[in-house]
Design brief:
261 residues, seven-stranded parallel sheet, globular, binds NADP nicotinamide-adenine-dinucleotide phosphate
């Protein structure tokens, strides 16, 4: 299927590591131009160099997304350099364990800021360009928004808000034919996930095997490539009548019967 993404410009927050890296690679392979917005310099340099060596297009801008000025700069520079913006992939975030007992109101708000505020800011600043291109927005949320996890109030609140904003923006942006969808990953091995396993558990390999054993389809984690393929489809005109949707590519982890073997 030709996704017709050639030379379309997509801002991908956190687009040089983990799930964001997968999406950047997929978009570039489809001939699109991913613009990575992140604080990860080394990973971005390496990825963009590799893509360029393959004749693909991509570039990156470095900064902290919690700062409104950086979000504005990302949009302005992408538009100035390429003359258009066709979509925003809101992806950067971290499950930072600010809970009820082990958090406080200031930490809660700081985490909300880092996990949620930039989802709004990037779309807000890009809106004039998205109106012109009849673009698409993709919010990367989390299964935590639906299931809870325990000890992570701020992250859960941010992820839940991203789902609400997916519906809210899909409604507000109907007149411009801008589509807005969300993907809810569950278990995807990324640098962040690796760090969590390695720091939170004495025997990370056992914990990993335990998690995989509970995933109905294939007893394995979802790959970042599988998330990215869905992302590219949702960003493309091939999903022209899909908006306001929450998609859950998780091998049946959340919704299939636990009694299945
Ligand atoms: P990751 O491996 O940490 O990659 C995220 C990238 O975004 C990193 O380069 C990170 O930089 C950057 N970033 C994060 N917050 C930023 C900020 N405020 N400003 C600038 N850069 C920032 O994470 P991931 O596991 O791929 O997760 C990506 C998204 O998927 C997140 O929204 C996460 O909540 C969601 N998700 C992931 C899973 C999973 O199983 N992996 C499950 C559910 C939801 P640093 O490396 O410096 O932090």
């Amino acid at each position: 299927m030709d996704l017709q993404l050639k030379d379309k410009v997509f801002i991908v927050s956190g687009g040089s590591k983990g799930i964001g890296e997968g999406i950047t690679r997929e978009l570039a392979a489809e001939g699109a131009i991913p613009v990575i917005a992140t604080r990860s310099q080394g990973a971005s340099e390496k990825l963009v160099e590799e893509l360029k060596a393959k004749g693909l297009k991509a570039h990156y801008l470095l900064g902290e997304l919690a700062e409104e000025a950086f979000c504005r700069k990302v949009v302005e520079e992408a538009a100035e350099r390429h003359g258009r913006i066709d979509g925003i992939v809101n992806n950067a975030g971290a499950n930072d364990g600010i809970g009820l007992e082990n958090g406080n109101p200031a930490k809660f708000m700081a985490s909300i800021h880092k996990n949620l505020q930039h989802y709004y800011s990037l779309v807000h600043f890009a809106l004039p360009y998205l109106k012109k291109s009849k673009g698409a927005v993709l919010n990367i949320s989390s299964k935590v928004a639906l299931t809870g996890q325990g000890s992570t109030s701020a992250y859960a609140a941010a992820k839940g808000a991203q789902l609400a904003l997916t519906r809210e923006w899909a409604a507000e942006l109907l007149p411009y034919e801008i589509r807005v969808n969300a993907i809810l990953p569950a278990e995807v091995m990324t640098p962040l996930y690796r760090k969590w396993l390695d720091t939170a558990f004495e025997r990370p390999e056992e914990k990993e095997a335990d998690i995989c054993a509970k995933i109905p389809l294939g007893k394995r984690m979802t790959t970042k490539e599988e998330i990215a393929a869905l992302a590219a489809f949702l960003l493309s005109g091939r999903s022209a009548h899909t908006t306001g949707q929450w998609l859950i590519p998780d091998g049946g982890y959340i919704h299939l019967d636990r009694a299945l073997t």
